[in-house]
Amino acid sequence: MITLKELLQKESPFLLIAGPCAIEGEEMAFVIAEKCIEIAKKHSLQYVFKGSFKKANRSKIDSFTGIGDLKALNILSKIRNDLKIPVTTDVHEVSDIEMVKEHVDIIQIPAFLARQTDLLVAAAKSGKIVNIKKGQFMDSKSMSYAVDKVLESGNNNVFITERGSMFGYQDLIVDFRNIPKMKVYAPVILDVSHSLQKPNQDSGVTGGQPELIETIAKAGIATGANGIFIETHFDPKSAKSDGKNMLPIEDLDELISKLVRIKSSI
Question: How large is the average pLDDT for residues 120-138?
Answer without folding.
Answer: 97
